[in-house]
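2024-03-11 09:14:02 DEBUG pipeline.ingest accepted 1 chain
2024-03-11 09:14:02 DEBUG pipeline.ingest length=233
2024-03-11 09:14:03 DEBUG pipeline.predict start
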Amino acid sequence: MSLRDVGVVIVAAGASTRTTGTDQGRLKQLRWVAGKPMLLHSLQTFQQRADVAMVVCVLPSSYAGDPPPWIFQCDVERMLISVGGKDRSESVQNGLEDLPDECRIVLIHDAARPLVAPGTIDRVVSEARKGHGAIAALPVVDTLKQVDDAGMIVRTVERADLWRAQTPQGFPRDMIVRAHREARAAGVSATDDAALCERLQLPVVVVRGSERALKVTEDGDFARVEALFPLPE
């Protein structure tokens, strides 16, 4: 039997300022895509894993006290609702604090990535169990240009060692708790949890992510996600 020691924090507390849909108060993470709300896709994917002890869904404060009823279409014994903070870092920290003690490995995932694949999760967890952080990512293949405020090209950026970060990002619990605690003490916030470990020179590796695991940011992304379902076996 697998050791059930993985805790998952799904960050779903964003304000969705770049989408215009009207579902569920215009929050993209609660809008329906491919037959169910976007958040529910990730929640159910992680709960399919035998090693997951708990999934904490971090919702905006206006939803945390009265969450949408569809969120309970899962294993409610392994699901908690946490209240979002003023920014992403504070939301993640709230989720970390709500994880039960048995969660020694922590995965942090953006609800806006509903197409997370089991194989990607496997690779992240496997590396985190070795005692360091790990993030899903993809190597940059496009030519990158740095431009000025007027849109003029300043230089071409070398892409050989550049990767595009995705989620989930996984860490030994002690590592990510320390990274968030020290960042808060220093007044530092980040849109990426690995960055908080990097500032302390804590080791984090990349594992292969997936082109399918796109992040829903704008309205057109919903159609792209619909086109990619169902997930391959």
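2024-03-11 09:14:41 DEBUG pipeline.report The chain has seven helices and eleven strands.
2024-03-11 09:14:41 DEBUG pipeline.predict end
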